[in-house]
């Protein structure tokens, strides 16, 4: 088979897989989570096998310990999160109204004090009038509230949220269990499918992808744990309302780069302004906690736990998040970084083949012959 036909074949196969993922949507989530969990715990199974346990026993012990730890944490944390979530939902409309009033009153006063001369000189007085500012802020808040309502409606419509939750709780451990038991056999089976002429090259690519994914999944899981604990404990200690809830949300969303920290920043600033106004002490304390957390994550925790294993440029990372999120929704956001890392490895190898091909070398290739 020619190179062009091989590229066409694998391109069509990836296109079909992407289309199926788009059609299935959230149904894939528990299976993807189960595969990721099995992949995450497989090294522990390997170490226990070396101690003399068989793979079935090792998988059972690890999953039971993991499930017990997760259940205990859920039992302890769930009541706190539930109470704060209900209270936050009740106070959310009041927060929106208060923030809108603060933005209108203080924003207009600051604009008039510091920019009044420039505004009048440029003839923009009408655009910066109180009525226009109120209309702009109102439209922005209305659009944000509508987006939130639509997002929540999409999550809970048709009982999808309840179904997804129980799917994750039931299907994910089952999938992870079978992945752990059959991991070596599956890898050997897939290895046997590789084209004989390109087996060594494909194995090399697979090893590089494995290093990238292992570094991200295992490292980023610990980063999420750090984010959740740091924000929950820090914001609670300074007396911020719903600090524990904000920390938990940031920890869960931390698996999606930038999203967890940005969520913690926006929520903590909004709550601190409403709670502490007219004093800005709580605002600066919350800002200090979030900024310190982001600094530690970016320069201490992530470099040590994740390092350069993923090897993605920040611009490519942001593009991958937007593209996969648009195509596959929340599941796309979760798989964006691992998929982008795999694509990056494959693209680097394709570039290497291109640079060594006669198509690139041209006359130099002929002269070399």
Provide a concise account of the structure shown.
Helices cover 86% and strands 0% of the residues. The chain has 13 helices and no strands.
Key structural traits:
single chain, 13 helices, mainly alpha, 369 residues
Can you characterise this structure?
- The chain is mainly alpha-helical.
- It folds into two domains: 129 residues, no CATH class; 163 residues.
- Helix content is 86%, strand content 0%.
- It is built from 13 helices and no strands.
- Helix 2 crosses helix 6, helix 3 packs across helix 6 and helix 7 packs antiparallel against helix 10.
- It is globular, with a radius of gyration of 26 Å.
- The two termini are 24 Å apart.
- About 2% of the residues have low confidence.
Strand content: under 5%
Number of DSSP helices? 13
In total, how many beta strands?
A: 0
Helix content: over 70%
> What is the SS-derived class?
mainly alpha
- Average pLDDT, to the nearest integer? 75
Distance between the termini: 24 Å
Residue runs with pLDDT of under 50 for 5 or more positions: 154-162
Task: Write the H/E string, N to C.
Answer: HHHHHHHHHHHHH
What is the multimeric organization of the chains shown?
single chain
Structurally, how many domains make up the residues?
2
Note the overall shape: globular
Q: Summarize the main sheet.
A: none
Radius of gyration: 26 Å
């Amino acid at each position: 088979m020619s190179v062009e036909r091989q590229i066409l074949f694998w391109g069509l196969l990836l296109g079909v897989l992407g289309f199926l993922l788009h059609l299935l949507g959230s149904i894939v989530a528990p299976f993807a989570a189960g595969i990721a969990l099995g992949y995450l715990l497989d090294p522990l199974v390997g170490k226990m096998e070396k101690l003399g346990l068989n793979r079935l026993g090792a998988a059972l012990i690890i999953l039971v310990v993991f499930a017990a730890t997760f259940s205990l944490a859920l039992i302890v944390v769930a009541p706190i999160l539930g109470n704060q979530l209900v209270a936050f939902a009740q106070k959310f409309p009041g927060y929106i109204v208060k923030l809108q009033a603060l933005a209108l009153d203080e924003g207009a006063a600051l604009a008039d004090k510091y920019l009044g001369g420039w505004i009048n000189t440029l003839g923009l007085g009408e655009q910066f009038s109180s009525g226009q500012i109120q209309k702009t802020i109102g439209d922005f808040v209305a659009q944000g509230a509508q987006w939130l309502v639509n997002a929540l409606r999409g999550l809970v419509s048709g009982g999808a949220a309840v179904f997804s939750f129980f799917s994750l709780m039931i299907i994910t451990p089952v999938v992870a269990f079978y992945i752990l038991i059959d991991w070596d056999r599956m890898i050997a089976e897939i290895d046997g499918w590789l084209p004989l002429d390109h087996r060594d090259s494909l194995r090399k690519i697979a090893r590089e992808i494995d290093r990238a994914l292992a570094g991200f999944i295992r490292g980023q899981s610990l980063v999420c744990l750090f984010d959740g604990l740091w924000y929950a404990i820090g914001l609670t200690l300074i007396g911020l309302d719903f600090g524990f809830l904000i920390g938990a949300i940031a920890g869960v969303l931390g698996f999606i780069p930038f999203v967890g920290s940005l969520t913690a920043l926006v929520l903590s600033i909004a709550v601190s302004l409403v709670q502490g106004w007219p004093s800005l002490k709580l605002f600066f304390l919350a800002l200090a906690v979030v900024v310190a957390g982001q600094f530690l994550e970016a320069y201490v925790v992530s470099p040590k736990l994740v390092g350069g294993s993923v090897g993605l440029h920040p611009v490519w990372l942001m593009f991958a998040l937007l593209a996969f999120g648009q195509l596959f929704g929340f599941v796309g956001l979760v798989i964006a970084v691992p998929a982008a890392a795999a694509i990056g490895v494959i693209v680097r190898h394709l570039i290497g083949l291109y640079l060594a091909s006669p198509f690139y070398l041209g006359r130099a290739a002929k002269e070399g012959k």
